[in-house]
Amino acid sequence: MKFFINYSLRIVQIINWLAGRAVALTMGLVVINIVLRVFGMPIGGTYEWVGFLTALAIGLSLAHCESQDGHVAVTIFMEKLPPKFQHITDIFTKIIVLVFLIITFRETISYANSTIVAGEIAQTTKVPIYPFIYILAFGFIAFALIIITKMLETIRKAVGN
Q1: Where are the domains of the chain?
Q2: 46-51: long-range contacts at Cβ-Cβ below 8 A with a sequence spacing of 24 or more?
Q3: How many CA atoms lie within 13 A of 75 on its CB side?
Q4: pLDDT tens-digit map of 77-110
Q5: Spatial CA neighbour of 48 closest among 136, 149, 127
Q6: How far apart are CA 77 and CA 79, in angstroms?
C-alpha cells in the first residue's frame, strides 16, 4: 500500500509541475501577444492557445489540489458525529467521487476518440484538439488515484479505531 501511495503522489507531483508550466506558458503568450499587438503583429490563435493551456492547467492540477486537501469541505456537521461514522461516511463519499471520476474519464476518452474520427481541429490554429482532451482524461485518472489513496488511508483509520 505504501508503494501505491508514493507512486500516486509522484505522478501527481509531475502533472502538477506540467500544470504550472501550462500557466507560465499562458502568461508568457498573453504578455508577448500584448507587446506584439502594440507593433501591429498580434499572435494568431492566441485565444485558442490560452483556452487549451488553461484547460490543461486546471485539469492537471485537480489531483494535486485533492492531495493537499484544497477542495472545499463542510465539516461542521460531521465533526459532531462519532469517528467511526465519520470514516464510514468519508469512505462512502470517496466511492461516489471515484465512480464519478471513472465515468468522467471514460466519457472524456470517448469524446477524444470521436474528435479523431470527425477530424476536429481548432478553427484558427488548425491544431487537432484530441491530444488536449486525452491529457485532461489523464488528469481525471490522477485525481482518481488520489481519491483511492485517501480512501485506503481512511479504511486503515476506520479499522484501526
Answers
A1: 2-160
A2: 47/124, 48/122, 48/123, 48/124, 48/125, 48/127, 49/125, 50/26
A3: 10
A4: 888 889 888 899 999 999 999 999 999 999 999 9
A5: 127
A6: 6
